Each structure stands twice: as C-alpha cells, then as structure tokens.
C-alpha cells in the first residue's frame, strides 16, 4: 500500500486572477470539472493506495477538508504547516508522522497543482517504481520533455531511456533550470527528463537520507510533529520548533546528495500549469489555436485563450492573435501570450495600489462554509452566506449593525440572546444591534441565508466572539 | 431663442458591451462624468436657448426624463416615436409641434450621442449660423476632417473654407460615404467637411422644404402629432399615421434637394464615437497610446484602450498592442483595434446564442426607478430595487413567490392587501404568496430596498397588475 502525500500549501500568482493568495490554483477547476487538488487526490486513490496525507497551511485547511469531502476522499491526516518552509521540512514531517503510524509505508509525494490527463498511465508508472522503492531506492518520476523548457529543473539519466517506458532507471544527477541554449542541448541529447517533484520512497529510506544529508532538519521537524496539536481533525505542527527548520527544497536537502536514486520516465502527458500559456496548451486549442472556457466567443481569433470563470459573464474576442484573456466578475486579465510569466508583476502592481483583487476573492471561505458580499451601500450590505451541514458560526455580537436574515435554502438554528429557534426556507429573523447571536446548520444539506446588514460601520472587524467551535479569536 | 431638438431614439451596438439595445450609448458616460445625452442637452443650454425638445422611443422615455432631471434641464416636450423612422419624420414632427407652440422658433437639430469637447466654440458656431437661419437658409454644421474617414458622409463646399472659421458658406452638395481613395482625395482637396447631422433652421423654412421635397411625409406626420396622446408629460405620437411615414433620413428627404443650404465649418473637435477606436482617440491616450478608464492597469502596452466600467472590477493589460478591452461585470470585449467595426458581429453572435448580454443590462430601468438581480438560486432571487421619490410600483400579486422586503435607504409606503404602512431603514415586510401589494416612495430621497424572493418560479412574468400609474399592462 502506498500513502499519497499531497503538498498543497503553495499560493502561486502566475495564474491570477483565477489563482490568488487566499484561494490558489490547486483549489481551482482549471482543466475539467474538478479542482487540481481533487484531481490529484483522486488520481492517487484505488486499491494500491492508502488514505492520503495532506500538507497545507492554516489558511487553506478548511478548503482542503471541503474539497476532499466533495471528492469522497477521507484523509489519513492533514498536517498544518505553521509557515511555508519549502518541500524538505514538509516531506520530513510526513515521514516522521508515518514512522509513528505506519512505519512500513511507501510514500508517494506529489504536488497537487499539476495536470496529468492519463491517471491510469500515471498509476502504472508508480507501480513500476514500487519494487525499487521497496528495495530502498529514492524513486523520482521524470517527464519526457516535449520542448526546450527553461522553467523546470532536469534529471540527467545514467542510461538511454529508449522508448521512455515506465521502469526504474539510474539517475546521474539533478540539473538546475537551464538557459535556452542548454535546454535545447538537453532536449536533443534525449537523456534528460523534467523534474516534476514527484517521489516514491519508503519511510525508512527517506528518513535515513534526511539523517544522512540534512541532519539539522530532523530535530526541529521531529519536535514540530511530536508537539503538534490535534485540532478538529488537523494536526497543527508546533510553530516554535518548525521555525528552526531550514527553508529548503527536498532536491537541495536530500536528492542532490543521495546515491540511491532511481527515476521512472513518464511520457503520457503532464503539465505544472505554470502560466496561462500552459493552461492554453492543456485546454486543447482548436485548429486555429483557439481555446475557450466558459461562456466565451471567439470571432476570427488565432492562438488565443478566452476564459470566462462565471456562467453569467460573456467574453468576446475579435481578431485576436496570441492573446490570453481570463475574465472574472471582479477582475480581468488580458495579456500577450508571450508575457504569461509577467502576470506576477500585474499582481504586484495591484497589491501596490491596494486592490483587494490582488490576493482575495469576493467569496470568503471560512471553517463553517463561505460568504460573499452581494452589494455594499453606504449604510447597508447584503451577503449570501452558505453554511455546511453540521457547521456553526461563532456566538457573536456587533456594536454598529443590525442584521436581517432570510433563509432561502435548508434550515437554520438561530440563537438571539436567550431565544433559540429553527428557521427554514422563506422565514426571516431580525438581529438587533448588540444582540448576542449565532447561526448554525443542524441539517443534512447546505443552508443558504441572505443577510441584510444596516448600520454606520459594516466592517468584518465589528465582531465580538463569545464562543467559537473553530477556536478563532 | 433657439429650440434644441435632440434626437435620441437610436440604439447602436458598435460600442457593446457599454451600449446595448436596452440602454444605448447616448445614455452612457463614455467620456467624462455625464452621459452623452446629458452633455448634448447641457451644451445646448444657456441664454440663447429655449427649453429643448427630445425625440425618443417608448423604451427610453423614463431614461430621458431621469437623465434630464439629473442634469437640471426641464424639457419643452418629449415626443415618443411609436417606431424608429429615421431622421426625416422625427425632425418634421418636431417642426409641426413647434408650429403650434412657437412658430417663430429656430430649431437646432442634433444627435445626442456625439462628443464636442469645446461647448463654447460649438455655441459660437451656432451663433454664427443664426443670421442665415433667420433669413430662411437651411444651415448645416460641417466638421473639418482630420483624416480620410470612410464612415461619414461629406459636405462639398462651393468655396474655399480658408481657415475653417465658423461662418455660413455656400454648400454645393451632399456626398455619400466614400471609399478610401475618394476619402483621401476629399481630404486633400480641402473643400469637403464631414456631415455631422447637425442643422439649424427656422420652423417655417424647414416646413416649406418638407412640403416642397417630401410632401408624402407631411400628412402622416401631421396626423401623428395632431392625434398624439399626452401621457405623463410625454407626447406619444399616434402610431397609425406614423406607420405611414417613410423611413428616410432628412438628408435624403430634404437636404439633397434643397437650394437654400448653408454650411458653417466647425474645427474645434468633434466625434460621433462610432466605434471603440474613436472612444480610444477621444479618451486622450498617453505618449505610448494607452488610454485607461476606471480601475485599469497597463503594463508595457502600446496603442491600447483598457476600460473597466465598474469600480469593483480591476482590468489588467500586459504587453498589448492595438487592443481594445472593455470590461463590465457581465460582459467583456477584447478586440484588435482594427476590428472595432466588427463589434456588431459579436453582438449578433451573442444574440444568436440567446445571451441576454447582447441587448440587456443587469440593471433594468423602469418608470419608477430601476432594479438589478444580485443573485439567482434555484428557488430564490435577491434584488436591489431603487424607487425614485414620489414614484410607485404597480399594485400587483404573484402566483409563485413570496417576498421579503428590507428597506435599507429612505422610506417606503407599503400596501399588503388591506394594510398600508410606512416602512423605513432597517425595517422589513413580508409579502405572502398571492397577497396584493404595492411599493411606493412617498419621500424626497431615493428609496432602496432589498427584495428576497422565494418560490418555485421567479420570472418577471409572474405578475398580475391591478393598477399602474404608468399605464403598463
């Protein structure tokens, strides 16, 4: 049995506006109907796989549980990194946790923001590496290059991969991201693969390697795991020792030093969706190079991506060449395709002008569900609030606003001061200014409520919390 | 005194998505803070001008009154054309109405969707034409060409305009829209002006010309005016005779035949904003040709228009050249600037796929104010409803939905069956399914109300009207 270890603490901005710090690309449905994280978890499920472990950060923990639940996957553990320290501490934490719970496990470490269209071929490649991993090898999976990419590291093979069939081959060394000329040479040589950051090894083998090549990491991460706090199904790694762990990738910390490396070639299609140009390629452009997503219309366009991320948002392109357009109701990106990597600069520019679109979405995900502001006036605001079955908002009060709640789907259990009652579809409740109140969903289906606030100050920080099942301040 | 006659029944689609059939460009703030219609009416006001007449259609009548009120302009008359019949019947109707009310008037006929940055210079040009108009001439205003435009008709001068100073010159003839070569010739010749469709003449002179050159129009239009119905301050021209009037422009019907034509050159800047490329020019592009409007950010762009039509919508362009981007929360246009005239095709394509964005906005303007849908679920809908002071919705009931109303600004007078009461900010009312109800704004400020509907069918057509001050079915 193989335990998938899904890394999903990253928050890339190269796919802005769809990927934002508060809800990055791994949680978005970039290709197909499920999110990249869900697709990654699903791809690594089945008879050969144990329940997955997930490494993420505190901000994303409820997104992870929500998306796993939606995909019907029950995780073995969700480890919360107090702060991002790159891949080495994360993988080490997973290995140390498994050492306690399943010391004979094989670990399949994978990022959760990649696209692998042929999941069966990918599982077959993993199967092909299993024997080597069981024999103590550190197995990495190398992607057959399709072009002279300068954005990835490479794996140099000790032998000719022939037809790139999935079998363990000897690995000579890791190669840093090359310049264009070197990338062309490596593509021509035929003995280099892309480093996709996907690994298979036994708990014992990787711990041995960490102890040999990165001993300074072991004590802090061991302490972070041992002193970690279970919290609502998560394991929160202990912040103090975690802060002592170096911020370093597993490649630098371990792989580049190890002498028990194998690589399994993978040639059935892969992308890290590292920019909108990659998304364009993976979307499957038509004969003129046009790729559409959502309600988008192209008139006489070539080599162009037109994406609308909202069913109620029509996007039209006319006479475009090499243009990427990604439209959301609160943000629109239009870029020359050759400038896909400069989207990061755009995000920085928006951040500099304090535009909330730089990092946040209109939808705000919370432990109990999510809300979005539908309209904000000078002295009123209307929100849609969706509460998961069994979830509850904190017991709270406000100094500056009253609230009208109208339940439009499901049933709410509402507390207003000493009064507790059930409120169902088409019923309303009034929460006077100052009243201590709570909203819960006691039912089996999501509860949707429209909240109309009126008052002189409507900020999220006008809140006094008396009780919170999610231990927030 | 000159009576402005503002023509604003048109509904162009070349400036989609900002201009749509239900709310076309003359009513939008395309350049500056006021709408083109408001700017046109304001430009033709002052000591030399009487109150304006407006020719429009039934769909736009309340937009016209709302925008005039906002601009502080009290119209002499608003004539409603039962259907669009081009400019000749419209101008004739205005002349026949003035014949009855102010037979000695001079009429200044102008479209209401043009941009004239220098209003004082424009009024001076009108002043320069007044003597000729009083002497019985049909005075047209001709724009000094700035480039070899193929989209306009031209006016051929009988004499050299010299420095294009504003004074009446003799006009040889009207010239149809030319091909590119002919446009170049006319630009080089220096004796041709653009026909902007702006005219000054006395009521007597234009009626004499209609009777001489387009006698078939006179009886139907006279009957349409005489049998017109006053309705809430509008004059609704009688549909039956109006339908007998030819659909013809004033150029074809009268001007091309008349021998008492003068033209006053105008060289101080003008645009009909006939496409987004024209809007780009009029917006005042910077040294690299970049024109921005709303929250828009350009990174390394050239000759590009980036417009966001919503304060909450960030638009970013990266590395663009010759691109027009116009973004609204429900529709985004991205076009090569050379294809600005093909926006019409885009609208046709959207119409073919039945996208409501082809013709309608999320905001729905009604006689009493406007509403917009904030969110639509399977069995609920949330609307923001804004009611003008003194206005009232119809007395109505629904078969399939209940409604919760929460007043968030101003005060509402609410009727529910036999109960009538005042509801003010932060108060709510419940309208049960089937109840006969009405919402009014008895106050002096706009009333804003959030409506939460629940029910199995939420279409606008689930309405039984019992009484309506606006005589709707």
UniProtKB/TrEMBL annotation, chains A, B:
Pfam families: ManC_GMP_beta-helix, MannoseP_isomer, NTP_transferase. It is an enzyme of class 2 (transferase). Keywords: GTP-binding, Isomerase, Nucleotide-binding, Nucleotidyltransferase, Transferase. The keyword Nucleotidyltransferase applies. It catalyses: alpha-D-mannose 1-phosphate + GTP + H(+) = GDP-alpha-D-mannose + diphosphate. CDD domains: cupin_PMI_typeII_C (cd02213), GDP-M1P_Guanylyltransferase (cd02509). The keyword Isomerase applies. Residues 356-468 form the Mannose-6-phosphate isomerase type II C-terminal domain. This is mannose-1-phosphate guanylyltransferase.
């Amino acid at each position: 049995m193989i335990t998938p270890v899904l890394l999903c603490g990253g928050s890339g901005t190269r796919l802005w506006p769809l990927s934002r710090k508060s809800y990055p690309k791994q949680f978005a449905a970039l290709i197909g109907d499920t999110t990249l994280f869900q697709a990654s978890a699903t791809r690594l499920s089945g008879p050969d796989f144990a329940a997955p472990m997930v490494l993420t950060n505190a901000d994303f923990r409820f997104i992870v549980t929500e998306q796993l639940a939606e995909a019907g996957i029950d995780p073995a553990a969700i480890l919360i990194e107090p702060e991002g320290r790159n891949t080495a501490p994360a993988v080490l934490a997973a290995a140390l946790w498994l050492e306690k719970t399943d010391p004979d496990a094989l670990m399949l470490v994978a990022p959760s923001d990649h696209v692998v269209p042929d999941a069966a071929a990918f599982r077959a490649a993993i199967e092909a590496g299993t024997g080597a991993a069981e024999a103590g090898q550190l197995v990495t999976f190398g992607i057959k290059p399709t072009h002279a990419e300068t954005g990835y590291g490479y794996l140099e093979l000790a032998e000719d991969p022939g037809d790139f069939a999935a079998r363990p081959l000897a690995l000579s060394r890791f190669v840093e991201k090359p310049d264009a000329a070197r990338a062309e040479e490596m593509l021509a040589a035929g003995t280099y693969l892309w480093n996709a950051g996907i690994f298979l090894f036994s708990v014992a083998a990787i711990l041995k390697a960490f102890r040999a090549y990165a001993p300074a990491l072991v004590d802090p991460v061991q302490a972070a795991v041992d002193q970690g706090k279970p919290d609502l199904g998560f394991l929160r790694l202990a912040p103090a020792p975690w802060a002592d762990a170096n911020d370093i990738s597993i490649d630098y910390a371990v792989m580049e030093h190890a002498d028990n490396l194998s690589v399994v070639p993978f040639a059935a299609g892969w992308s890290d969706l590292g920019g909108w140009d990659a998304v364009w390629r993976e979307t499957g452009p038509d004969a003129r190079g046009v790729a559409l997503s959502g309600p988008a219309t192209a008139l006489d366009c070539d080599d162009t991506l037109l994406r609308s991320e909202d069913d109620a948002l029509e996007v039209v392109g006319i006479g475009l060449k090499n243009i990427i357009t990604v439209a959301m109701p609160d943000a629109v990106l239009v870029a020359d395709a050759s400038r896909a990597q400069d989207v990061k600069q755009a995000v920085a520019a928006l951040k500099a002008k304090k535009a909330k679109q730089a990092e946040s979405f209109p939808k705000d995900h919370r432990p109990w569900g999510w809300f979005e502001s539908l309209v904000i006036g000078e002295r009123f605001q209307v929100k849609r609030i969706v509460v998961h079955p069994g979830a509850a908002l904190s017991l709270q009060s406000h100094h500056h606003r009253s609230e009208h709640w109208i339940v439009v789907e499901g049933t709410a259990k509402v507390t207003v001061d000493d009064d507790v009652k059930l409120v169902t579809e088409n019923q309303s409740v009034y929460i006077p200014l100052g009243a201590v109140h709570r909203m819960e969903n006691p039912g089996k289906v999501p509860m949707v409520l429209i909240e109309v606030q009126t008052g002189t100050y409507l900020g999220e920080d006008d809140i006094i919390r008396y009780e919170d099942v999610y231990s927030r301040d």
